[in-house]
């Protein structure tokens, strides 16, 4: 499969900055090309939740074939406690198009490290935290050798705890992932999907994500990717503010008070993100 199928903008974006993480079911190869040509910053071929037990082996073969014939993607592998985990990693360790793995049901730091050790050196592991135990161990997981970024499995977490989807009910878990990521010196964590939401409903969900300090979001629909990218990018007003402050600074603006340097740092960060996302001169 030709490499041009990959969204060139997203392919050039470092995964630490990825906003939209699109899960494409490995139950059929028909999902792969639409995902890779979407606006998703990162695409994840899903061999775990999207594939029933009888189809696991075929899904694994399908993913390895795609990643060996020109496609590039992340892959969600089955949890370390399952019978599929070792075979998933053995197969993926030889796939040239593998960008990294998302480890389902991460609950302990050593699970990430053991996963990383079975892959090619330097392959990033994204720890998907989906249970109360995983949330409580998030700081240790974030600091584990091999952990690249944390993600929140909202659906399974809610089933595990009985929590509703109200932002207040999930605030502790989201905050825990944000603080853990900072302690572990990781990029901001990735929020769970808002299943079925598009348009304004999804933008509102992205506001919750951003307000908690999370910088990415999982999704299941290609049509959700552009909305998430917009919802988790600097706004037009933020970009205008940053551009004005940086112009004044370049022209020799004098430090007026103790808030100046923090504001300058924020303007520089907004500038860098806007440039990475192709928004600075848009």
From TrEMBL:
Coiled coil, from the record: none
Key word Metal-binding present: yes
Pfam families assigned: HpcH_HpaI
Recorded GO MF terms: lyase activity; magnesium ion binding
Listed SUPFAM superfamilies: Phosphoenolpyruvate/pyruvate domain (SSF51621)
Keyword Metal-binding: yes
InterPro entries listed in its UniProt record: Aldolase/citrate-lyase_domain, Citrate_lyase_beta/mcl1/mcl2, Pyrv/PenolPyrv_kinase-like_dom, Pyrv_kinase-like_dom_sf
Protein name as annotated: CoA ester lyase
Lineage start: Bacteria, Bacillati, Actinomycetota, Actinomycetes, Micrococcales
